[in-house]
Amino acid sequence: MATSETNETERTVRVLIGKPGLDGHDRGAKVVARACRDAGFEVIYSGLRQSPEAIVQTAIQEDVDVLGLSILSGAHDTLVPKILRLLEEEGMTEVLMLVGGTIPDDDKQALLNEGVDKVFGPDTDINEIVEYIDREVST
Length: 139
Fold this sequence. Notes:
This protein has 139 residues and is of the alpha/beta class. The chain has five helices and seven strands, in the order βββαβαβαβαβα. The mean pLDDT is 92.
């Protein structure tokens, strides 16, 4: 668990947990980060109130496999597309993109259409997130 094949050598899956925008609540992000770390992933936490540019630069510098965004502010409809566009401009289209938080059901499909791989709501079992990352990055 928690390794991915890269050039025929195994390395630890690298996960960046980002908190874009002005949202100041990070308990859920920290819970996900801890669960990922406990599962054997290498976890980088961006901290609160990060710009899309700062999150993408961290993703590049840390060579992450997974970018998980925690958004509770309602700004997902502008922040997520911007981050996806910046990742694409940097050639980071293979990064598994996850979004979690209070995302209205009506907006989930729009995020998936934009390029998000999976949207997790606030009541998601933490093991489901870890298992999803492990399954998707290992394949």
